[in-house]
Amino acid sequence: GQCPDGTIPLLQPMEVPSQPPAKSPVITVVHSPGTEKKAIAKGTEAIRDGYAIAAEHIGHYNIDLNVIIGESHAKTLEWKRNAHICIDQVPPDGYPAGLGNSGCEGLALACLTISRYDVDTGAYFANPPIVKASNAQDVARAIITYAMQGATIRNRIRLRSWSWAKAHLDITGSWLEYFRKHLPPAILERCK
Predict the structure, then answer these.
(1) Rounded CA gap, 113 and 101, in Å?
(2) How many other CB atoms sit within 10 Å of the CB of residue 65?
(3) Which helix (H) or strand (E) holds 130?
(4) Which residues pair with 96 in a beta bridge?
(5) Residue 21: CB partners within 8 Å, gap ≥ 6?
(6) Is the pLDDT of residue 183 over 50?
(7) Regarding predicted confidence, which is higher, 93 or 11?
(8) Is residue 120 left, alpha or beta, with left meaning phi > 0 and alpha meaning psi from -120 to 50?
(9) What is the dihedral sign for C-alpha 140, 143, 144, 145?
(10) Which H helix or E strand runs over 133?
(11) How far is C-alpha 128 from the geometric centre of its chain's CA atoms?
């Protein structure tokens, strides 16, 4: 029941809203690498390229991309709260990949979340409902597919993301139970 490297998967706990937040009428894509330096490791170039391909393909739809660099965490969360799609990371080959804090925030804020995520966490918790992407074409395909859906399907996607986060990330509930189940008793004793 452990990851190939012997570790257990850890997720960032957070306060998940009691209800999925309402979304902007414009389909908005957000990506928040934090800094220009981190943008390389997070695959921001591939994300911008994927967005450009999607926007060209679905030009008659109203769709925006916000790459958030150098903003406060509060401002970043506000953008994610209104966004439809959150792209966590699509790093180039040779860089680590996974579901980071940004992706977890996207799920908690009811976004379709895209990331390069190659881990099967099924032995620990349900795999997150993300769209896996490893290049610009995958990003474009995910954005186009989402944009072409009707409001009913997009709302189902939002609810599935939020529900997963509520079940697995919410600091007030399941997150703590997960750690009680998987951490060694000696560590849990020190946390009291």
Answers:
(1) 12
(2) 19
(3) strand 130-132
(4) none
(5) 81, 82, 109, 110
(6) yes
(7) 93
(8) beta
(9) positive
(10) none
(11) 9
Eight-state DSSP code of residue 23: -
Q: What confidence tens digit (pLDDT) does each residue in 39-80 have?
A: 999 999 999 999 999 999 987 667 899 999 999 999 999 999
For residue 119, give the amino acid letter: V
Give yes or no for a contact between 20 and 177, defined as CB atoms under 8 angstroms apart. Answer: no
Both tokens assigned to 12: 């960032």
**DSSP letter string, 61-129:** S-EEEEEEES--HHHHHHHHHH-SEEEEE-PPTTS--S--HHHHHHHHTT-EEEE------TTTSPPP-
Q: How many Cα atoms are found within 13 Å in the side-chain-facing hemisphere of 187? A: 6
